[in-house]
Amino acid sequence: MKKIIIIALGITIISCTDNQRAKTFGGSEEIELKKNEVLINMTWKESNLWMQTIDTNTGISYFREKSSLGWVEGQIIIKQKTM
User: What is each CA distance from 66 to 9, 21, 31, 43, in whole angstroms?
Assistant: First the structure.
């Protein structure tokens, strides 16, 4: 019985994405920002990670989604209107 539980747990951990492992099991994940971007904030929405960054050259703010499966990842671009 112990072997079945260990095998099931192993399969569960192996089949998880980086996002799910980092959030659920306390694993780690490395995210590389684009050149000239600074991280402002990040939050979890279920197993997807949303990051807010700002481009230091243009001042444009981005909200980017890093989905757990990597298939559909959203992006919101916020540009400040200049007078």
Answer: 25, 14, 9, 11
What's the pLDDT score for residue 55?
Answer: 93
CA distance 5 to 11: 10
CB contact at 8 A, 74 and 65: yes
Phi-psi region of 46 (alpha: psi -120 to 50; beta: other; left: phi over 0): left
This prediction has a pTM of: 0.63
Domain positions in the chain are 2-78
pLDDT of 5-47, one tens digit each? Answer: 776 666 555 555 666 666 666 667 778 888 999 999 988 887 7
